[in-house]
Amino acid sequence: MKNIDSKSHVTGKSIYLDDIPTRQGTLYAAVFSSPIAHGWIESIDFAQAFAMPGVVQIISHKDIPGENQIGGIFPDEELLAKKELHFQGQPIAVVIADTEQQAFDARKKIILKFTERKAIVDAREAQAQNSLIMPPRTFRKGDTKNAWKDCTYIFEGRAKSNGQEHLYLETQGAYAYPLENGNIKIHSSTQSPTAVQRTTAQVLNIGMHHIEVDVQRLGGGFGGKEDQATPWAVMAALGVQVLNKPVKLVLNRIDDMRMTGKRHPYDSDYKIGLSKDLKILAFEATMYQNAGAAADLSPAILGRSLFHSTNSYFIPNTKVTAYSCKTNLPPNTAFRGFGGPQGMFVIESALAHAARELKIPTYKIQHKNLLKTGDELPYGQKIEGGILLQIWKNLVQKFDLQSIENQIDTFNKSNTHFKKGFSLMPVTFGISFTKTPMNQARALVHIYSDGSIGISTGAIEMGQGVNTKLLQVAAQVFSVSANKIKLESTNTTRVANTSPTAASTGADLNGKALEMACNALLARLKTSAGKSFGVSPDDISIQDEIIYQNGIATSMNWTQLIDQAFLERVNLTENAHYATPVIHYDMSIEKGIPFAYHVYGLALTEVTVDCLRGTYEIDTVKIVHDFGKSMNPTIDFGQVEGALVQGIGWMTMEEIRYNDQGRLLSGTLSTYKIPDIYSVPKEIIINAAQSEGTDFAILKSKAVGEPPLMYGIGTYFAINQAVMAFNPKAKLSADAPFTVEKVLMGLYAADHPDR
Amino acid sequence: MIEFILNDKKVATPLPNGSLLLDFIRENQHLTGTKIGCREGDCGACTVLVGEVKNGQMSYQQIPSCLTPIGNVEGRHVVTIEGLNMDELSPAQQHFVDEASTQCGFCTPGFVVSLSQYCLSQDAPDTDKAIESISGNICRCTGYKPIERAADKLTQSLAGKSTTQTVDWLVQNNFLPTYFKDIPNRLARLAPKEKTNFGQQIIGGGTDLYVQKHEELVTQDFDFVINHKELKFIKVANNTCTIGAGITVTDLLESKDFSGLFPDLAKHLKLVSSAMIRNVSTLAGNFVNASPIGDMTAFFLALNAQITLAKDHQKRIIFLKHFYKGYKDLDKGEGEIITEIIFNIPFGKFNFEKVSKRTHLDIASVNSAASIKIKNGIIQEAHISAGGIGPIPTYLSDTCNFLNNKELSPTTIIEANNILQKEISPISDVRGSVEYKRLLLRQLFFAHFIELYPETISLSNLILQS
Ligand SMILES: Cc1cc2nc3c(=O)[nH]c(=O)nc-3n(C[C@H](O)[C@H](O)[C@H](O)COP(=O)(O)OP(=O)(O)OC[C@H]3O[C@@H](n4cnc5c(N)ncnc54)[C@H](O)[C@@H]3O)c2cc1C
Ligand code: FES
Q1: Tens of pLDDT along A70-86?
Q2: Which of B35, B47, B96, B107 to mutate to test ligand 2, by most ligand atoms within 8 A of the CB atom?
Q3: Which CATH architecture is the domain A440-579 placed in?
Q4: Using alpha carbons only, how large is chain A's radius of gyration in Å?
Q5: For the whole model, what pTM was predicted?
Q6: Residue pLDDT, tens place only, B261-320
Q7: Which residues in chain A are closer than 8 Å to B435, comparing Cβ atoms?
Q8: Position in ligand 1 atom list of the atom nearest CA B288
Q9: Is B105 in the pocket of ligand 2 (CB under 6 A)?
């Protein structure tokens, strides 16, 4: 089934936040933010700005009736800065005017006097100054101290991965307007309507019941609208509270890039020890996460870096410590993979390092150490349904790894101008929010008296196709046609206390709740039908909208059944609640079962480097991926392709740059580059692994949003290999992204043997 | 009043001619299928088509509405996604649905509009052209593979397309709504354009100006290069090529006369911005913007081109290399405009090189162009330019002087690079460190010779010796 929104998408009729018809008297807001990364406000003068045409109000922290606080995990982030300035782009005031242009024009007239302090932009520097978001966390297994002496080979090094701008094509925004009695309705482009509702209530000092948040769809989220859609919605609502007028606040691209956080840069040290036969005996790492100026979701993201620090490998002795370092960058936040990619990059760098020194292909070590069913991960969970070895075998045979390796070897021997490289990248990714209480969801289903169905859940549609999957669940349980079913907007008055749509769990959690609601309704309908045929409900079934009795079609159809049930006063509405069973986690010992299940996969990447210009092309990425039993291969394969390319972007061309004062240098689309149609792999082949799925996944169809992003890491190491084929002595420390600059510098590094 | 046809409706507006088409479409006309993604021409979410009669047929181009002043579409036909919709989906739309080429959908109208330009073009269907048409459209969700598949399917659907009666064929085959057929007649009935004159500030495509200061421009009236037909010509005769300053990069590509002089033109110009930016960006705009990494500037510097500057009835001709005095400091008087560009032919062999973070639709870290004449193994004349290695687009005069009358050999090239390195003064910025830019220019300098004289020069003999 195709994405149910695709028709309205291709005709331009889908409505995004900025397309909602505005109400009469709507005002427009622009955010005035800190020009410096660290310091404090000496004085601020709004007089000139206020005198500008069209300006209605300039809101500052003084206008906040409740708490000036938006921190989700820790209360450490002001909505509007009072005195201290912690990052460039930190909101200070909101200018509200008759038109957007007037708001922007007036914003330029605000006079801010400030004292600037030295900014910390580097995570290690922050750690050295004990500038931390929270105490470090350490995952331990076995005894690394004792294990080193058993290792034949030990390698130590450093791995850095840079941040990544979400670059959802639709920027952040919200539109709020007054309802009666001080109630406010907010349309927000958010992955977390409940976070918007809760935070707005807190800032406005009113009950959550006064705030209604509604989300139709997002023009992309990728984690960037999990926590960081909230402030703009709160500001718009604050404007409504102060002025009793509709207020729209949509960030322009430059403000969005400047004011919002990104994927966390990580800087890590690793030490890896191997036995003579290439078994990894011990692994230690220290990770420095650049959290930016406030906690945001950093603590949870740090957790996932630790969970995935050994990626797909069984390592008997591990000790990994991670610091969440407080710097003067915008608070970094969720981004597809949620710290997992950064964690995996470290171990993959360590393996590539070992392989380089041992002069063997990295995959020899990777393969030797793959996780198997029953293997215990550093956090105590045991692998179930571990199919990595089978996936590996499948890929290696299907694509004939040996001949690929030989061809590349031959090519490299006979070419100077171009060199090829390849890599394998296994992925093991845990599914569930690692904070157990978040693993819950609700669904509300109405069957209308004409037999049509309306579904509300807490899931946010942002292109990942969750609404399509939800529709499939209902259509399958009721056996009715898709055109009878409507997915409603996500609205806090229909489904309350929702978890964000994140961690790839949207379809699982909301789908399970929906399945339960539909099953409950189905049971009632069967009872009703059973009664009218004088048989037990168990004898009733529905197929393609026809009611069957003991497998034989009756003359009753779905619409008639609903009509009858309604007259019998059967409840045609159901609200169900789902909480993922089994999972639990104890942070005090860092052990538990944080994940309902794992998703597995493997990618083979081949690249060609132009050794004259330092440019490169990705020739192919071949993937075997564990979809479980995919309920929608069209959508799921699309998620793999999209995530892979996003991962490749992170590893290759997407380069966030701040200067020493913490000012963003790559703050426009002309300075920050994401993949375009010419830079993606020439070929992407995706194969579904033989997989049983799991009962924790909706219809045994495993979560797919995040795991494939990490296949992109393979590109880094394939390029690395090609560069070394040209310049074997290039001392390449792992430092992503592998921009064309780093490639050229590596190709011609001073210790090139030919120079 | 500015009049044009927007989809199937004539519109007239008293707005300043510098106001933006995107805002007019969304705010004034409430057509919200055209999206705001970046307002700097770098994402394609706001793509629309603009059409006019050319050689008796409607000719459409995709353009970034976020950088297009409404003055630039006066008297023309503007098409948004709404203007392409019919009762049933068009093949472009249907293939997007079938191939799952849309996820969040925010980029999708832009892609569909660009692909409609591909359908409307009078070229024979070819998937590479389809991809070219969407080279200015960015998608963050799909990874492009499903979009490539849709483009491929669309090409198949276009088999049999008439290249002479294109609009009729497309209407007949349900690619376009029928109202398209009547557009030429309706355009002819629009009020004549208001006269603009050289007195006011002149705007070419607006692709530099509107990125830099759109907030100022939208409230003003301007003179538009597009309204000066006399600036739109390419003439090859008497050992010179003369180009009107209103010529766009796309015009160069479409000119048989011009592309006849440059066998690799398509390959070279594919490295310059995107199809939609090339459609509107003028050569003179690139020269006057004076960015140190202007690609067309580097291109014409290496042809040792001259430009004609005019004001009122006074004219002067100077070498392009003398136009640049310092960072954004030009030998150009107040109100002087560039009217034409002139270079001599034949100019020997020509090459253009550019490396940027992303190969396409990106500003160069370093670019370079070269024209080289060789006789009996001796360099007769070399003109080499480079960008990104100093405050101005640079003609490498010391390097060129050194090369003249030297034998073409790896040694000469390596020695020339030593001169070259003394001639440049790159700085570190987002586009690269000093060390990188120096190394990169060396490589691109080498690349000219490797590309043009592969029988004599190769990467191995250059790097083994240097
Ligand atoms: C997304 C994007 C990508 C880009 N990529 C590239 C790239 O890859 N390479 C590159 O080189 N550039 C690139 N550019 C920059 C720009 O497109 C070019 O510099 C273009 O040639 C400018 O032409 P224009 O007609 O749009 O200039 P305008 O913005 O219209 O004008 C620029 C300046 O020139 C003046 N001017 C225009 N015509 C004349 C004339 N005849 N006489 C005197 N003054 C005149 C204007 O008054 C103005 O000061 C890109 C721009 C965008 C938005
Ligand atoms: S579908 Fe979301 S940006 Fe293309």
Answers
A1: 999 999 999 999 999 99
A2: B107
A3: 2-Layer Sandwich (3.30)
A4: 27
A5: 0.98
A6: 999 999 999 999 999 999 999 999 999 999 999 999 999 999 999 999 999 889 999 999
A7: 745
A8: 34
A9: yes
